[in-house]
Amino acid sequence: MSNLALKELLYKMADDLLVFGHRNSEWTGFGPLLEEDIAFSSMAQDKIGQSQALYQLLHQLGEQEPDTVAFTRNANQFHNCTLVELPNREYDFSLVRHFLFDTADALRWQMLMQCSYTPLAQLAAKVRGELRYHTLHANTWIKQLGSATEESIGRLQQSLNELAPYALGMFERSPYEDQLMADKIFEGEKALEARWQQAIEKTLAQTQLTLPDWKIQTPHVGGRVGQHTEHLQPLLDEMSEVFRIDPGAEW
Amino acid sequence: MNSLDPRVNRLPAIGQPGQILPKAALDQLGTFEVFVQPKDGKPFQHEGIVHAANRELAFVLAKEAFTRRFLCTSLFVADTRHVYVSPTTEGNTNAMDQLAEVINQPGTAEAYDIFVLPKRGKQHVHVGQVQAVLPQEAMWKAKQQNLHQGKVVYNVWAIRTADIRFTTEEEKDLWLTLPEKKFRDASDYKGGDKLKEFLERSKTT
Amino acid sequence: MYGGGNTFEGIKTDSVAQEDPAKLAEFEARIARGEKIEPTDWMPQLYRKQLIRMIEQHAHSEIIGALPEGTWITRAPGFRRKMALMAKVQDEVGHAQLLYSAAETLGKSREKMIEDLLSGKSKYSNIFNYPTFTWADCCFISWLVDAGAIVNQLANAKGSYGPYCRALDRICAEESFHLKYGHHCVIYLASGTAKQRQMFQDAINRWWAPMMHFFGPSDKISAHTEVLMRWKVKMATNDDMRNQFLDMYVPKIWELGFTIPDPNLKKNAETGKWAYTEPDWEEFKRVINGDGPCNKERLEVRRVAEERGKWVREALKSPKTAYVTPLA
Question: What is the ipTM of this complex?
Fold first, then answer.
């Protein structure tokens, strides 16, 4: 089994979850409805908890401590897709991003339940309930707002159109696709993308939203190899502001 | 805004600072009552309410509002309007004894879930299910079937089972990682050793 | 988090004389027996009014109280602190949700309460109008402001109104996490580098005055609350709660080698009461009335959140649901 391929997979998942959880935590206290504020915060906590668990697996494979990895790298060392680093806008944007990301994330974890690397398969089995909640939450909201008022439908549609190319960037192919498949670690981004499109279509069909035409989209790639938008570095600077006062200190 | 909070500095400008527009008369969503089962074998207990657009969303929102720590195996919600409420009693007066006799109603019987208030100030607790045509009849049947086990209760609720959004069997994994979320628990923040070590260190310097 | 104190100024008890004497006697007897009042019970107008006012202020204090600590939510150092602070700020929002619901059972809608918060008509705890300059300020709140809130909330949990007690039982269980987490953070600062220690000492110096204000004006100058004590709406006097807080936490602060910026702070071994420099109640009044360092920002943030959430709430309205008063 190749550690490089496995590590690449773990890094991109962990970085996705950390950055996404961090972005979504910015809503805590600012949400549109108290109950939703609470739910959205819980999911952000789940994501960050999952990222920590993945960094822990990486640590067991010889990488540095989770805190060091998460709080001291620069943007070009991060492997998250660009979708998750985009700054929050209005709630439609965050909700559609949540729907697009979590649909893929749940499927990815589901595929990993069969992973030949046992610690990852075990983690996938453990977090399946969290993922069930995240997709239940996303689908319920998309169905509700995607068929409610003219304004809500219009907002969701616009966010969907804008985010579609970034969402496709989630499936940027890894140089290790064949190896991951051969080692029975992961079935690959292509398989995931196909399942994701089906799932997205199924939910959107129950709304008044129009599915973006995937064929004419140019996926926003680069995130997986450390090429990010201008938004990631400021996010990381902010996240590590206190940590960097004295990285040797215990906080 | 010029704030110490970087998040606040990123908030968009909207409306007029300081100017509050009165809320629309209907800017208030429906309420849904939330019931939680902490452990298999334990009864469901009323935990509070959420505001939501419909039962499905109420279920989704109730999950994190009421079951994000401690233990949970199952959760259900019902529209507040679907809860039938008996008079409230006090002292030694049993609310069950205040119910009117309602029997042999025409129509098709359906399942109703019955809840009682065992003590003022405590939560309503689920005590069982009966078949009835009307909620009043359901309450009366609950009394006949002694669902309160002869104890004094201070209030009775009946909800038609069909009006409840239950947790499905496959959804029970929603709480799978809950016992591991120690970061939400006081027990995860024991500072005693660190404190002792610090006090020892301060003594010597 | 809530300090009370600012709640009961200038109540008029005239309306009590106009209540039905038989019903009033029955109501007071029930409370004297230690039974809880439930939403469908008869209650004096003044009781209802003061409870709404108190629970509502408490709820506002939670939702506004999420903001000063929220200032550091994106900057908490390391996974452990990051997860904990997210969960803690979330709890404050959760407490607001529980408390608004409890107040709703008395007949005032959540939306109306939020409107009154934004318009400045109803108040919230003064302490959240102060800024959190550093991570250590955030730790001060998590530990000591929450500790103060627990003193107040444990007292109120023994009050007479069922739904409020139920909400408080839940809240107090969660606050124990806040308190332990806060203390844990402070122990790490205290035993850390010189810079970390200094950060927390500075935080104490900044926050001590608001902390003393937290429990409200001295009993000598605060309004007449006898009837509210009898009805178990208000459960302890401001000075008693302040004294209890000092008794429990001053030794813990000193234990960590920090100083408290009040040369007169000393426990009288005979009476068990703490002596301290009388807090500046003029400043307290000024801040309550809108002139604190962060009042404008706090309300503006809530206003913006409301405005931005409007289209979402619009889209949730459905002809099939309607607002009703919650049951319990």
Answer: 0.97
